[in-house]
Amino acid sequence: xxxxxxxxxxxxxxxxFVLAHIAALDDEGLTGPSRLPGWSRAHVVxxxxxxxxxxxxxxxxxxxxxxxxxxxxVAQRADGIEEAAAQAPDAxxxxxxxxxxxxxxxxxxxxxxxxxxxxxxxxxxxITAEEVPWRRVR
Length: 138
Hints:
Shape: globular
Strand order of the largest sheet: 1-2
Largest sheet: 2 strands, antiparallel
Number of strands: 2
Distance between the termini: 22 Å
Low-confidence stretches: none
Helix content: 55-70%
Number of helices: 6
Strand content: under 5%
Order of helices and strands: HHHHHEEH
């Protein structure tokens, strides 16, 4: 199957929208509380960065057939978010931008046949790579 162009377009637009809002936050705004209990906005941004890396793992799996789960464990996911959130604000901003760019680049070079490749979400649900851009949009 070819790349899911409509969903990729939504994802690119969403990435640009969110990254622009992150860039517009001053340091206090970035590190301030979020609406998620126990998470600062830095945690949310750290989650976005680590999620981009995790979805890249799934695309690598789709491309190569070598099992590459999103995260090695629930603890690894949580630790990655905490580590990202603890970065200095400018480092966190750069981290989320770089993670987004890597994910978009990986999607842009995924061969057509890889979009149909079976992979599994972090919760073990069987999907194809075609769902990865939608998962990012959500």
